[in-house]
Amino acid sequence: MTRISRLAIRHAGAGAALVGLLLLLSACGTLRNTVEDGPDKLLMLRGHDPVAYFTQQRAVKGDPAIKADHEGLTYCFISDEHRRAFLANPARFVPAYGGACSNGTPYAVKTHGTTGEIFEVYRDRLFVFGGRDARKHWLMEPDRNIQLADAYWENEMKDTPHKLQNLKRIFLFRVPHYKTDAELEAEWRRRNPGS
């Protein structure tokens, strides 16, 4: 076997392994930030009432006995009144970006570590975050972040499992405007001296 033949076989093997890894990852991970809680296999917002973010301006755990399904996902509510309001207009109350951290989506990153506790209602939409710093960094430029995130969500993220999406956008093909947490924190400190 010639040297060129051995190289060709080695590259073909590496390519096949990469394709196999990508296929495996595409089957792993969820599309939305859900948890399993008893009979609820796809519970959104870890059981927090999506309407309460708007009416009470805080995260409130819903009653598991008062729930509704929307697009295959389960939501809990503190009252039947909230349940009815949600069912009348679910698009108003569902969290942006499938409940993924809203600070990652402008970078096409689908982080599913949100608990529903840290949030922002902005321009009558619910945005959830994986931590206080993520919310703080997102609030530096909310309109720009929404514009970028809405486009990435519709064009590539919505129907991609989070593990595959993150492999693609964190490790292989970062967006041109990508910023690390450290870079965002440094920018926040420059904008907020003395804080």
How is the secondary structure organized here?
Blueprint: H1 3-26, E1 34-37, E2 40-44, H2 52-55, E3 63-70, E4 73-77, H3 80-88, H4 90-93, E5 118-122, E6 125-129, H5 132-138, H6 142-157, H7 162-172, H8 181-191
Antiparallel strand pairs: 1-2, 3-4, 5-6
Helix pairs in contact: 5-8
Please, could you describe this protein's structure?
It is globular, with a radius of gyration of 20 Å. The chain has helices at residues 3-26, 52-55, 80-88, 90-93, 132-138, 142-157, 162-172, 181-191, and strands at 34-37, 40-44, 63-70, 73-77, 118-122, 125-129. It contains 8 helices and 6 strands; from the N terminus they run αββαββααββαααα. The chain has 195 residues and is α+β, with helices and mostly antiparallel strands.
Keywords:
195 residues; alpha+beta; 2 domains; two-stranded antiparallel ribbon; two-stranded antiparallel sheet; globular
Counting DSSP H or I runs of 4 or more residues, the number of helices is: 8
For the record, give the distance between the C-alpha atoms at the N and C termini, rounded to a whole number: 67 Å
The average pLDDT score comes to 84
Structural domain tally: 2
Provide the gyration radius in Å.
20 Å
Broad structural category: alpha+beta
Total count of strands: 6
- Approximate shape: globular
Return the string of H and E elements: HEEHEEHHEEHHHH
Low-confidence stretches: 23-28
Percent strand:
15-25%
